[in-house]
Amino acid sequence: MTAAVVGVDIGGTKTAAALVGPGGEVLERREVSTPARSGPKAVLDAAAGLAADLLGAAGAGPVGVGTAGTVDPATGSIRYATDSLPGWTGAPVAEALAARLGREVRVINDVNAAALGECWAGAGRNRAHVLLAAVGTGLGGAIVRNGRVEAGARGAAGEVGHLPAPGADRLRCGCGRYGHLEAIASGTGLAAAYAIATGTRVTGRAVADRAAAGDEVARQVVDRAGSVLGAALAGLVALLDPAAVLVAGGAAGALLPAASAAYAAELPAGWADVPLLPAALGADAVVVGAARLALEQTE
Fold this sequence. Notes:
- The protein is of the alpha/beta class.
- Helices cover 37% and strands 20% of the residues.
- It contains eight helices and twelve strands.
- The longest helix is centred in the last third of the chain and has 25 residues, at 216-240.
């Protein structure tokens, strides 16, 4: 593996592309706001434009893409997506970008891409089996075994957010149901729980900031969310037997202290050596993982 490769990250808010070196290092990066409200064609045009700017410095192999939504592993199209990308369900991402770029394109869910990136060049480096939880506006998950993502039958394996969770019965998950882990251990969950407790509506990030500044209710909301997340991850360790558990995403820092304590308390003795670690690549995780996906076919 000697040539650089292009990885793309298509999200509801921003789209990024990066030229990634043979060790997983980001050599160049481009980013624009995702034109989500203009429809899938505009989103694909934006992604292709960013990637095209970098292809001249890349090798001749495929382009990798990590995108919001559930990806059909056989076709690279979107099986399901939320309203963060209107009309994205059914989008033929691999086919459409290949036509625009004149390259083969490999597509994966963005959380799965982040897990690949972390296992290649981040906190999961040199670990063959990893479980990653991505705590942002929602809660996503991914499983990597022997350096490859476990896709499952529908491309959605590892979605930890829809596990039943104590304390979430009054909180609505992004799927529309109540009582799920995402409904409590996510930015949306923090905001909803704080609104129920105080009658004040702020963002999940604001709840985390208020907790750090000494707001007692906000601290209780954050600690409860972290504790529930940590306990759930400890249970999943016994089910999945990973070498490490990684926590990524914008809300990870706020939840990790309580999550780490609950994880240690609930972890079965047979898995006491499985660490809970913060992810390391930050905003580059998806583009690095997408690049790794592109390289899989050439190795």
